[in-house]
C-alpha cells in the first residue's frame, strides 16, 4: 500500500507525553515527524537531541516554519489546549488532543468550531480505549447475555506526588479535571450511555496546605441516559508510598454480571529495601521501539489520517466530556445537582 | 464478682439471628434465657427443641407469661421492630435491637420515647463495631499521625439471593435499608463525624422483574460534619456465583494515610466442582460454644446489663442512622440533596 | 462445675511469648499464675511489675520456691527447651511447650521420657490449630466430597528482621527450625497424614554476611504416608519493607478441590508515609483481656488440665515433628533424601 | 528496508497453536506463508478455508510440494516433534519449535544434530520471554541493586480440562512435560543460572481414574549452578471451576528484594451466572490482526530470519531443558536426586 503523501506531524509540548508521542511518530512507517515546539529551552534542547527534528519556542513559529504540516498532536497542560489547538485547526491540521479537550466548555467549543470551519479532524486522547482489558469487556457488554448496565463505580486516584511534583500547573486543575475525563469516558464508552445529571462533593484541605490550591478529593454521582448510575471517585492525596503512582479500580454491574478491573496492579509486585511497588507496563520499549496503550492510540490516529477506518472519540464527544467535568465543578460550587 | 440478679432475657424473633442470640444468652454464664417468641409454629418448634425454653406466638403473650424478664433482644424483620420494641421498652425491659432501629424516623422515635419513659436502656446492633479489624483502625485513626479524614468509600453489596431467597420481606426493605446502616455506622464511628446532607441515586430494574419491588442498587453521597465526604454503594443484584453472599470493601483516606479493608474475602478461597467461595468465619462454634462478632456484641450487651462499662450505640444514635437512611430514600424520590 | 484445685501454673521465659502466656493465665478464671522465671534481670523486673507474681532467675529456684506448682508453660528459645522442660516434667508438672518440642531428637525424647516417667501431660504449642481458618478447612477436608489430598505447598517466610533483630539466638536456629514446625504440623493435622521421607535444599549467603550463621532459605519436599506430596518453603531474608513480618501462604489440592490460604494478609492494608502494612490481629486486647490464637491455645491447655476433653498435640507428636525437621537439616547436609 | 527474499514459511500442525502461528505469518509483511500440514482432514479443511494456502496431510508431501520453503514452525504434540523437525531441518529449513524441543534427550539431540549438519537455525518457543512482565524484571534483576538470586518458587498448574479434554495425547505427557519447560526456562533466563541437580516427587491418582495414565501433580526441587534453589510445582488436576484454565504464580527472592508475579490473574474478574473467570489477554485481535506474546515470538523468529539480531533460545538450550525435565521423571522413577 502506497500513500501519495504521509501525514506530516508536529507535536505541541515536549514534556513526558509530548516526547513520547513525537517518538511514536518518528518510529512510525506511515507518518513523518516534522517538528516540535515547547516554551522551555531545556525541554527543546532535550527533544532536539533525542528526536533530531527542528524545535521551536511556540506554535505560531513552528507552523510558519513548516507550512507542509498536516497534523498536530497537542500535549500541553490541560488548561492550555485552546490557543494551540485553534491555531493548528485553523490552518487545517488534523488534531490528536490529550484529554480533556479543554477545561471549559467555551474553550472546547472554540476548538470544535475552528476544526469544523477548516474541516480538520479532531481526536481526543481517551487512551483507555486502547487498553485491551477494556476493549474485551466492551465487546462482552455489547452481547445480550450481559444484560443492561445497572451501576458503575470507578476509583481513579493519584498519589500526592502528581499535584505537588509532577504537574507544575496542578492548581489550575483538580483531581476531577485530571482524572475523571478518563473514568467518565470509560463509563460511557464501555456501556453506550451518557450522563444526564451530576452531583458532586469534595474536600479541600491537604493540597492547599501543601501549596496547591485545589481539591484533595472529589466524588461525583451521575445519572445516565439509560437509567443506570455512575460514581466516580478521584483523589490526589494518596501517600507517596502507595505501590503505584495511580490507583485505578473499576467495577461494572449489569443485570446478570459483575466485572472488576484492577488496572494499577498489573500482576507484578516488587518488595525492595525502598518499599513496595507494582510494576507498570503501560509504555515500554521493545527492540528500540515504544509499545503500549498511548502508542497504539497515536498509531490509530495515524491510520485514520491515512484513510483507514477507525472509531475514534471526536471533538463533539470531547466537548461533552468537558461539559460534564465542568458540571462536576459547578455542583461542587453550588451544592446542587447539575443537568447535562 | 457476684450479681444479685442476672439479666432475664427474652428473644423476639426465632430466625437465623434470633436463634443465634438466644443460644448466645443460653451459653452465657451471666444471663438467663427466659423465653422466645415467633409467629411461625415451625420456627417455634425448632427453637423449643434446640433451646429448651418456653416459646410463644407473640410478644404480649410472652411478656405476660414471664413478668420476671428484664431484657429483650429484638430480631424481627427490620420494618417490624417498632411494636415489639415499644411493648418491651414500655415494661422497662432493656433492649438489644438489630440494626436499623426502625425503617422510619417515626418508628425509631417511638421506640426511643418508650425507652426514655420507662428508663430502659436501648442498644442498637451495629455489629461491625465488634470486628477487631475496625476496632484496631478506629484506634489508629484516633491518633494524631493519621490526620483528619478526607474521604470514605464503602461498597457493601449482597448477591440477589438475599432479596429473592433469604428475606421474605425484601420488598419492604431495600439495599439502602438493609446494608447502609452498617456502612454509615462505620463511617461515623471510625472517624467521629456524622452526616449533615445526603444525595442519592439508584436503579430499579432487576429485582422488580424478579418479583421484588425494590431498588437494585443505591449510591449515596454524604457531606459529613467535619467537611469530609462519604460514598456508600449498595447493591442487591450481584450474581449468585459470587464468592460470598456479601461483598464488603471499605476505604478511608486521611490527610496522611489510606486504609483498605476487604471484609468479605477473609483469607481462604475454596475452588470446588460447584464454584469458588471465600470461607466466612463471622460466627463459628468452638467446643460447643458460639463465637464471633455478633456473639461478642450480645456479650457486651449482657456485660452492660450487669453494670460493666461499655460504649454502645444507643437509641438516639439509632434514630440518627434511621433518619439518614430515610433521607437517602427521600433523595431517591425527589432527586435533590436532603439536609440531616 | 467446681474444681477441687485449679492448676497452679509457672511460666519459664519472660519474653514476648512468655509474658503473653503469663498474662493469659493471670486473666483465666480456671487457673492460677504462680511465678515466672527468666535469666535477664530487666525481663524479670518488667514481668514482676506487669504480672504481680514472684519472678525468679532460673527454673530450679522457681520450682523450689513453689512446690505447689502443677503446670508449666515453656517459652524459652527453641534450642533451650530440654533442661527446663525435663526439670518441670520430672517434678510431675504438666507442660505446654512452645513448638518445636526441641531442636534435636535426643532433646525431644528426653522431654518425652521425663514426662512419661512422672505421668506429666505434655502439649506442644502448634498454635495454628487454634486458627479458625484452618479448623474449618480441616473439617471440610474430613468430608468425603473433598476426596483425598494430592499435594500441599506451604510458603512461610519471615523478613530478615526476625533473625537479625528479634531473635538473639537465630544462629542456633534456621528458617527450617523456626518456621517449618508450623507448616509441617498443618500439613499433617489438616489432612491426617504424616511424612515418610524428606529431601531438602537451601541457600546460605545473606544471613552469614549479616552476621547470623544460618540458612537464608530452605525448601523441603516430603513424601507423605498416604502417597501425597508436601512442599515447605521457608525464608528468613525477606526485605524489611514487606507488608508484614511474616508471609504465610498455604495451598492444598485434593482429588476434587483446591484451598488457598493467605494468612499474613488479614484483610486490612494501611498505606502511610512510612510504607505499606497489613494489619495483624493474631493477638489483641478487648476490655482489658487478651484474645487470639495463642490465648485460645493456652486456654485449652488449662481446660485440659481441668479435666475437659481436648484433642491436643502431645510429646510423641512433638518428637515426630522434631525428627522431621532434624531430617530436613540432615538432607541439607548430605544432599540425599532422608527416611522418617 | 528491502529483503532480497522473504522467508517462505511452512507450518507443521494445524491445531490451536499451529493455526495461530500460520495466521501470524500470513499477516506479517516480512514473511510468506507457504503451506500447512496436518494429518486430520477436518483440521486441514478448516485451515485451508481460513488461511487460503495449500494444506497437506504430512510433512514430507508438503516439503516436496514446496521446495522453496525456507522455514518451518513446528506445532505438533510435544512427543511428536522429532520426525517432523528432523525432516525440515535436514532440508535446511530454519525452525521455530514449540517447547519442549522434545520429550526425550535422544529426540532433542537428533533435532539438534540434523540442524547443525544442515546449518539450520533452531528457535525453541519459550514464549514467556516475550511477556513484558518477565522482560522488565529480568532487566531489573541484572542490575547490581537486586543482588544475587536466593530462591525461586514457580507454581504453574492447569485445570483437569487440559489433560482430559484439550489434549488428546495427555497420557504421553505429564504436568512436568507440559508445564515445567515454561517455568524452568523462566528461572534460568530471568536469573542467568542453570540447574545442576534435580529431585522430584509426584502423585498419580486422579488422572488415571479419569482415564489419563499420567501424574496428577509433580514437585521438583533444583539446585542451580549459582547455589540458589528452584522449586517448580505443576498440577494437572485443578477443578474446572477455577477462574482460569491455567494458574501461574511465580516468586523470586534475591539478596535484597522479592518479586511476586501473578500471571493468570490479569486484572479483570468476571462474575456471571456460570461462575467466576479471570479474563485472559495473551492473544487477541486488533483491527483484524493478532497480537500477543506468541505473536511477538513468531515475529522475532521472522525478524531473525531476515537478519535482524535477536537473542533467542536455541537447540542447545532446548536440549538442556529437555534433559532437565527428563531428569525430573527419572527422579520420580528412582526416588533419588539426578545430576544434570
UniProtKB/TrEMBL annotation, chains A, B, C, D:
> Which residue range or ranges hold the GFO/IDH/MocA-like oxidoreductase domain?
134-253
Q: Molecular function (GO) terms listed? A: nucleotide binding
Q: Which domain of life is it from?
A: Bacteria
InterPro entries named among the record's database cross-references: Gfo/Idh/MocA-like_OxRdtase_N, Gfo/Idh/MocA_Oxidoreductases, GFO_IDH_MocA-like_dom, NAD(P)-bd_dom_sf
Domain Gfo/Idh/MocA-like oxidoreductase N-terminal: where? 9-126
The protein, known as = Putative dehydrogenase
Amino acid at each position: 500500500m502506497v500513500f501519495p503523501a504521509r501525514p506530516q506531524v508536529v507535536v505541541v509540548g515536549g514534556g513526558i507525553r509530548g516526547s513520547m508521542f513525537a517518538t511514536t511518530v518518528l518510529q512510525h512507517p506511515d507518518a513523518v515527524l516534522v517538528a516540535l515546539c515547547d516554551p522551555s529551552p531545556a525541554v527543546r534542547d532535550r527533544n532536539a537531541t533525542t528526536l533530531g527534528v527542528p524545535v521551536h519556542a511556540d506554535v505560531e513559529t513552528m507552523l510558519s516554519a513548516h507550512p507542509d504540516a498536516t497534523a498536530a498532536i497537542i500535549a500541553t497542560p490541560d488548561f492550555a489546549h485552546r490557543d494551540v489547538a485553534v491555531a493548528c485547526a485553523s490552518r487545517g491540521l488534523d488534531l490528536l488532543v490529550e484529554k480533556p479537550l479543554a477545561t471549559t466548555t467555551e474553550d472546547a467549543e472554540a476548538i470544535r468550531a475552528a476544526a469544523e470551519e477548516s474541516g480538520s479532524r479532531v481526536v481526543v486522547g481517551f487512551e483507555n480505549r486502547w487498553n485491551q482489558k477494556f476493549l474485551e469487556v466492551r465487546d462482552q457488554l455489547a452481547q445480550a447475555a450481559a444484560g443492561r448496565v445497572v451501576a458503575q463505580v470507578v476509583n481513579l486516584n493519584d498519589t500526592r506526588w502528581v499535584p505537588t511534583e509532577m504537574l507544575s500547573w496542578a492548581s489550575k486543575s483538580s483531581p476531577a479535571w485530571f482524572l475523571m475525563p478518563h473514568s467518565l469516558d470509560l463509563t460511557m464508552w464501555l456501556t453506550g450511555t451518557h450522563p444526564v445529571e451530576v452531583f458532586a462533593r469534595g474536600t479541600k484541605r491537604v493540597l492547599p496546605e501543601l501549596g496547591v490550591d485545589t481539591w484533595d478529593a472529589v466524588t461525583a454521582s451521575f445519572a445516565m441516559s439509560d437509567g443506570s448510575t455512575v460514581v466516580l471517585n478521584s483523589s490526589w492525596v494518596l501517600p507517596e508510598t502507595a505501590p503505584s503512582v495511580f490507583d485505578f479500580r473499576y467495577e461494572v454491574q449489569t443485570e446478570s454480571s459483575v466485572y472488576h478491573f484492577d488496572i494499577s496492579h498489573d500482576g507484578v509486585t516488587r518488595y525492595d529495601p525502598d518499599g513496595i511497588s507494582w510494576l507498570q507496563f503501560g509504555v515500554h520499549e521493545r527492540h528500540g521501539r515504544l509499545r503500549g496503550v498511548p502508542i497504539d492510540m497515536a498509531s490509530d490516529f495515524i491510520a485514520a489520517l491515512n484513510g483507514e477506518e477507525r472509531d475514534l472519540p471526536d471533538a463533539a464527544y470531547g466537548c461533552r466530556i468537558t461539559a460534564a467535568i465542568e458540571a462536576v465543578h459547578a455542583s461542587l460550587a453550588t451544592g446542587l445537582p447539575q443537568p447535562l
